[in-house]
Design a protein that fits this description.
single chain; 5-stranded mixed sheet; mainly beta
C-alpha cells in the first residue's frame, strides 16, 4: 500500500516497460538490465512498473532522483566516463551499475 493508492492517484493498470538503449525498468524489486552501458552525455531513464515506490540513488555521488511511483520515470545524464553504482534509496538491496564510456 502506498500513499498514492490511499489518495486514489495510483495507476491501476499495467505499466509498459521501455526498451530503448538507455532504458532501465524497475520490476519485481529489481533493475533490468542490472548493468547499463552508455556513452558520456547520454541520459539513462528509469521507469517504475512496480506497485511500490522507488528512488534511484547514485552510491558515490550522493545524487537522488525524486521518488518514483508506479508509471513514473526519471533520467540522469552521465557526463564523465566511469562506473557508477546505484541503489534504490527506499530498498537498498536493489542494485545496478551504469558503465559510461567516452
Amino acid at each position: 500500500m502506498s500513499l498514492a493508492q490511499l489518495a486514489g492517484k495510483f495507476p491501476t493498470g499495467p505499466v509498459a516497460t521501455k526498451s530503448g538503449m538507455q532504458d532501465v525498468n524497475i520490476s519485481g524489486f529489481s533493475f533490468g538490465p542490472t548493468v547499463m552501458k552508455v556513452t558520456a552525455g547520454q541520459p539513462v531513464t528509469w521507469t517504475n512498473t512496480d506497485d511500490s515506490p522507488h528512488q534511484i540513488t547514485l552510491v558515490d555521488k550522493g545524487l537522488r532522483t525524486a521518488v518514483l511511483l508506479k508509471g513514473h520515470s526519471a533520467s540522469l545524464t552521465f557526463d564523465e566516463a566511469g562506473t557508477f553504482g546505484y541503489i534504490c534509496g527506499l530498498h537498498p538491496g536493489m542494485k545496478g551499475t551504469v558503465e559510461v564510456a567516452k
